Amino acid sequence: MSLSIYPHLKNKKTKPAHWILVLLLGTQTAFSGLLFAQSKDQTYYLQTLKRSGYVFVNELNSRSADSVRQLAFSGEELQQMNYRLPPLPNLEKLLVFQSHGNRLKIDARSNPVLSLIEIKNHRDQLKSLKIHCPSLKTLQIYESSLKDLYRLKQTKQLNRILISNCKLEKVSLQKLKRHPSLRELSLMFDSLKTEQVNWSPMPRLIKLNLTGNLLYKLPPGLERWDSLQDLNFARNKFKEVAGGHPLPPGLKSLSFYDNALKTLPPDMVIPKQLEILDLYYNQMKELPEVIGKFKSLKILYASFNEIQELPEWLSRMDSLKALYVHHNKITLLPQYLSRLKGLEVLHVNSNYLLHCPEWVGEFELMNDLDLANNLFETLPLSLKKLEALEVINLRGNPFPEGELSSGPVFELLKHWRENDVQVVR
């Protein structure tokens, strides 16, 4: 269960002890309107909500209170109810849309299991948000105009705050430390720059998603984020990563998806438990050698770069289970990659490979092999030995007609068909 809040909501200040003062917001009138720009868009949106199981306020009189689990209403309807929800003992999700004004209140004391509140499309400059909901677990705010996060008071169960497209001007993480249960914080597509955030350590946080901002350097003090396991810097403005900059010691997943990195520094401080590294859509001409020090790495995403060859040190990464290097400029699969005995997934599609080596058939655990969109004219029969294989992609290779009618490729296709392997052609 959770609580999520969308952009245009109206509020007044009140004093109950459990109110959650969530946001100080401010500068711009947000969202010009994907959903509400035209009346037909609004109608479609409301129909979508209804198909998803949401009940609207004007339908409550025709339903038993016990049957309502998802409730949606506009900010105007909320205001008419004096910001107090009707007693719905099984209500789990609340959606407030099309709100207006610079303050919003939600009184959910009569809803003991309400755990998700979403606020979407708040039209004005939201300056404060107060919520009284002791069971709140997830708060979501979309497409609003917020200056800053503010204190959330007495929300002992709150474990997720998800904010997206809210044009945040600044964020003080210090204000969120009062929430001992907070485990996930997402600030996506909010145009945040590194210096706009007060990076006060949050030692209990497990997941931090900063996708789609304007960050260009690592935040200070990350080594004090003791519990952080998932750190996402996708679609920011990183051109380099400073060497010697400590990362959270327990980090398991790190993403620099879609930045402008050309390499990683050789003195990068390596979290011992890192299992997933995402370098998709950068500007790397070679795999950074420091990756070879990631002894626990299981999944390496390095596709959509300009990599021309796979280095020898890669073969010493015994823990590696999945290697994604498609959409690069690789012309050869070197023999030493055969040492990666634990490899289960290999995606080398959309490169410039002419030859598929015999040793590719030696991966006993391989279940997903993508060879699509290369320059293969034949394949080795040793691929029959891939007993764990579940799916293979061969699309876009220039196999001659003879290969498909009677040659090795024909035999392989027959073998895979008999063994229920999914072949993509």
Characterise this structure.
The chain has 425 residues and is mainly beta. The protein has a domain of 169 residues. It is built from 4 helices and 24 strands. The strands form 4 sheets. It has a 17-stranded parallel sheet. The two termini are 43 Å apart. The N terminus is likely disordered.
Q: What's the overall geometry?
A: globular
Distance between the termini: 43 Å
Q: What percentage of residues falls in helices of 4 or more residues?
A: under 10%
Structural class: mainly beta
Proportion in β-strands: 15-25%
What is the average of the pLDDT values? 86
Number of helices: 4
What is the tally of beta strands? Answer: 24
Q: What's the quaternary structure here?
A: single chain
Low-pLDDT runs? 1-38
Secondary-structure element string: EEHEEHEEEEEEEEEEEEEEEEEEEHHE
Main pleated sheet? 17 strands, parallel
Radius of gyration: 26 Å
Strand-helix topology:
Blueprint lengths: L18 E3 L1 E2 L14 H13 L3 E2 L13 E5 H6 L12 E5 L5 E5 L8 E5 L7 E5 L5 E5 L5 E2 L10 E5 L6 E2 L11 E5 L8 E2 L8 E3 L20 E3 L20 E3 L20 E3 L20 E3 L20 E3 L20 E3 L20 E3 L20 E3 L7 H5 L2 H11 L3 E3 L1
Parallel strand pairs: 3-4, 4-5, 5-7, 6-8, 7-9, 9-11, 11-13, 12-14, 13-15, 15-16, 16-17, 17-18, 18-19, 19-20, 20-21, 21-22, 22-23, 23-24
Antiparallel strand pairs: 1-8, 2-10
Explain briefly what this protein structure is.
With 425 residues, the protein is mostly beta strands. The protein is globular, with a radius of gyration of 26 Å. The N terminus is likely disordered.
